[in-house]
Amino acid sequence: MISKIIFICLTLICWIYVWYGEMGDMTAFHIFIMWFLMMIAMMLPTQLFLYWTVPNLKQYLSGYIFSWAVFSVFAMILQLVFMNLGWLVHQKLNPENVVLFLLLIAGIYQFVNFKNGLCGFKPKNSKLSDGMNVGWRCIGSGFWLTCLLFVGGVMNIYI
Prior knowledge:
7 helices, single chain, two-stranded antiparallel sheet, about 70% helix, about 160 residues, mainly alpha
């Protein structure tokens, strides 16, 4: 019961940060925290169906959250590269050719069979590895859509 309450509180805290978070000094650490909390706020609720059915919720969610932490490192590196190239202006991707490329790839990827194969995994024994497996599959199936956050504006809740 306590792990379920912690789970719900963590999701709410992440949403509070996403809604009211300051975008001041953007060090690598701050960018990582921003991406990590934003991904947890959006993706942790997708596991809601497991609250009452998974016997080892802590291990499963630890693996799931770890997957998103690794993704957040990748997103942080990508954002730092874009910032150093001058491609991010007011947290939005600027060069039209890069924006068009991301939109085109994301659109095509929605119809690829590989993506659809990632979505059907059901956790078997709710261990750490199951949580990581589901996390990687979520990242893989929605990767290019998540990259569109750079197009609409990083941390733009109105996308």
